[in-house]
Write a structure and sequence with these properties.
The protein is of the alpha/beta class and 449 residues long. The chain has 15 helices and 18 strands. A hairpin with an 8-residue loop joins strand 5 and strand 6.
Length: 449
């Protein structure tokens, strides 16, 4: 039987930024109208980019494969609309990557739109019995063929984490329903509107990985989601546990510590302590891939912030531009100052509204001038607040200042590569040092050495 714990677990350190969930949490998932054109990036996941398998002017249907995975850590991409392929070109993503994209110009008639599209992705019955008829390797293969990656933002190819590992068996399958990033509510709406898909996907993942226990972790600022998942998981053996609301509760390492007391070693993976973590949206996509043979062509995106006129949660074709989503939500307010891909803690500023939505885009947050106003940077006062806040027990100022100075030896000694760029350090820094940006620069420095 599924149960929520009486005591609310958490992890050490972290921060409590303003949640700002109220802007969009009450808005049901709305299907975004088919855009005139989408730009499908051939690299929208961790690992190797795809290679195109379509030609200019070729007609494609929704779900057709247009990019083939080129390595084990890779993921294919599919057409998100019916239409005609245009000449390949390049686009710049908010994270600064220049990637190859395949444009698709929409056909006049679409095979699946509106409510029919929503029902195909989230609706219908989601069985909880007789799922053992699928072989474990069949489940992993379905996730690969469907192009599923981590939809929480990491975009790690999901089929890799669905494979059994005889050398390091999985004991705990953790499903992340925390959505701890401020403003974003896409996962929350999926938990309310499609809890059955999440539970079915979790059961399939349990069978695929051989996990002994399945636990869905949800922060205590989402009581309706807890209730919805408890009802859907009744009688399945899946546990639903309530966690304290704290950032970054949904990070793999912190979730492992909070839910099962397993600390992931520095530079290690949850796998090394018998844990695998999947996001709720990801695991729902796994259910659809296995049971319905459907690839990942759309994702839920929260368009929110005080700088957006009508915050919404939208089911969006991958490859739609940021600008089109913002326009659909009434446009920006007069005091809008910054568009962020994702949320304000871990997101990237969007340099162009023509950039396409990718599989890893969980939100578009529009901040106002008041939101982004910050004090001028001053010298580090060695107060230690960044150390106290870092959930990975790192020394962020040492790492960031070593990166600024180009000192690779110090950066490595203080485990620069272990940083997950959660932003806790920058959030609490009284000197307004751009710690996360410096650490990102440091990672580029080490990658070139």
């Amino acid at each position: 039987m599924s149960t929520a714990t009486e005591g609310k677990a958490t992890f050490a350190r972290g921060v409590h930024p303003p949640e700002e969930k109220q802007l969009a949490e009450a808005m049901p998932i709305e299907v975004f109208p088919t855009p005139a054109e989408v730009l499908i990036p051939l690299l929208q996941h961790l690992g190797s980019p795809c290679e195109p398998v379509v030609e200019n002017k070729q007609e494609v249907k929704l779900g057709d494969r247009i990019g083939e995975a080129t390595g084990f850590i890779s993921s294919p991409v599919h057409a998100s609309i019916d239409g005609k392929v245009a000449k390949e070109k390049k686009a710049t993503l908010p994270n600064g990557r220049h990637v190859r994209v395949i444009p698709i110009k929409a056909a006049a008639e679409q095979s699946l739109e509106g409510r029919a599209l929503y029902d195909d992705i989230f609706g219908g019955e989601w069985p909880t019995g007789d799922l053992e008829r699928f072989a474990p390797e069949e489940i992993s293969k379905a996730a690969l063929e469907a192009g599923i990656v981590g939809l929480g933002g990491a975009a790690f190819p999901s089929h890799v984490k669905l494979q059994r590992n005889e050398e390091t068996p999985i004991e705990y399958l953790l499903i992340n329903g925390c959505e701890c990033e401020p403003y974003l509510t896409a996962d929350y709406r999926i938990m309310l509107e499609a809890p059955g898909a999440i539970v079915t996907g979790a059961l399939l993942a349990r069978h695929a990985t051989g996990a002994r226990e399945v636990i869905i972790g949800i922060e205590d600022n989402k009581p309706q989601a807890v209730a919805a998942l408890e009802a859907a998981a009744e009688g399945t053996g899946i546990q639903v546990r309530t966690l304290k609301t704290k950032y970054p509760q949904g990070a793999e390492r912190q979730l492992s510590t909070a839910l099962v007391g397993r600390e992931v070693p520095t530079l290690g993976l949850p796998l090394h302590v018998g844990v695998v973590v999947h996001n709720v949206g990801t695991i729902a996509a796994v259910a659809r891939a296995v049971l319905r043979g459907s690839p990942l062509t759309h994702r839920v995106v929260t368009v929110t912030g005080a700088g957006i006129r009508e915050p919404k949660n939208l089911l969006v074709p991958i490859g739609t531009s940021y600008g089109e989503l913002i326009e659909y939500c009434g446009g920006m307010t007069d005091d809008a100052a910054r568009v962020v891909a994702g949320g304000p803690m871990m997101g990237f500023t969007a340099g162009s509204l023509e950039a396409p939505i990718t599989k890893g885009t969980s939100g578009v947050t529009v901040l106002t001038r008041d939101d982004v106003r910050r004090a001028a940077e001053t010298t580090c006062v060695r107060c230690g607040r960044c150390v106290d806040a870092c959930p990975l027990h790192l020394v962020p100022t040492k790492i960031a200042l070593a990166a600024r100075a180009g000192n690779e030896e110090v950066a490595r000694r203080y485990h620069l590569q272990a940083c997950v760029e959660c932003g806790c350090c920058a959030y609490v820094c009284p000197a307004s040092i751009p710690l996360v940006q410096l650490i990102r620069v440091g990672k580029i420095m080490l990658s070139k050495s």
